[in-house]
Amino acid sequence: MRTPFIKMHGLGNDFVVLDARETELPSVTNAVAKAIADRRTGIGCDQLVLLEPSASHDFKMRFFNSDGGEVGACGNASRAVAILHGEPAKVETAGGALSLHPSEGGASVDMGVPSFDWDAIPLDYPMDTLSMPLGWPMEVGSLENPAAVNVGNPHAVFFVEDADAVDLKTYGPIIEHDAVFPERVNVNVASLIAPDHLRLHVWERGAGITRACGTGACATAVAAARRGISGRDVMVSLPGGDLRIEWRSDDTILMTGPATEAFRGTFEWDDFA
């Protein structure tokens, strides 16, 4: 069967969107998601996004990383879906309900309330999630004392003097797969530019180095505010561009930034099944 898809991106973090809200699709298995995401033999993307009907919300979003694994949230993809949907919506995800608000050239997404409890991250054993007593040696110095935040998926946030100087391609997968993170973890390395401005690089679990990560920007902004090194309304600059993150007084996180539809096409489902 020929299946339509929409290719989108948020600051260079790219997605293949499959819309099954009105027309049912065959089951999206981990193997199918991985095959579609392959940049050499598939369509190619960081994440596959599946839209489905919901009994309790306007619709449901499911997210699969390029390794085929399903995850609970994706901030950049949520902005992309917001502009695709074209009007405000309350959306069901495995990581909790999200509120989408499209705007000219992008969208704002209410990402909900972050979690800080060790078993909500989750971690393998109890510890302080504001400054975890852990470190990973690098060739020069070490990555140590990260903050842990769950914003629909787990994040470890390291604050360093120069985020651009950290070799995340080498150290990202080491930390992602450390046994202290039973569900693996997204690895964020950030440096402070100003009290309202952070520089960020992200190693995304199951996807690797990414040009932008919406949930990573949210987790990093919240961690910086909790540590008192920034305010609660900050600009987060990633390799792909900037996101505005506001940790509001009700503790919900508002993420605002651009998203773009790149092109549309169809594929033969059996080629990837």
The quaternary structure here is single chain
Tally of contiguous helical segments = 5
Radius of gyration: 18 Å
Percentage of helical residues?
A: 10-25%
Q: Termini separation (Å)?
A: 11 Å
Strand content: 35-45%
**What order do the SSEs take from the amino end to the carboxyl end, as H and E?**
EEHEEEHEEEEEEEHEEEHEEEEH
The averaged pLDDT comes out at 96
Coarse morphology: globular
Task: Supply the helix-strand structural class.
Answer: alpha+beta
Any low-confidence stretches, pLDDT <50, length ≥5? Answer: none
- Describe the largest sheet: 17 strands, mixed
Number of strands: 19
How is this structure best described in words?
This protein is an alpha+beta fold and 273 residues long. The chain has helices spanning 30-37, 75-85, 168-176, 214-227, 269-272, and strands at 2-10, 13-19, 47-52, 59-65, 70-71, 89-92, 98-103, 106-110, 135-137, 142-144, 147-150, 154-159, 186-194, 197-204, 208-210, 233-238, 241-247, 253-258, 260-268. The protein has a 17-stranded mixed β-sheet that branches. A hairpin with a 2-residue loop joins strand 1 and strand 2. The longest helix has 14 residues, at 214-227. The chain is globular and about 55 Å long. The model has no long low-confidence stretch (mean pLDDT 96).
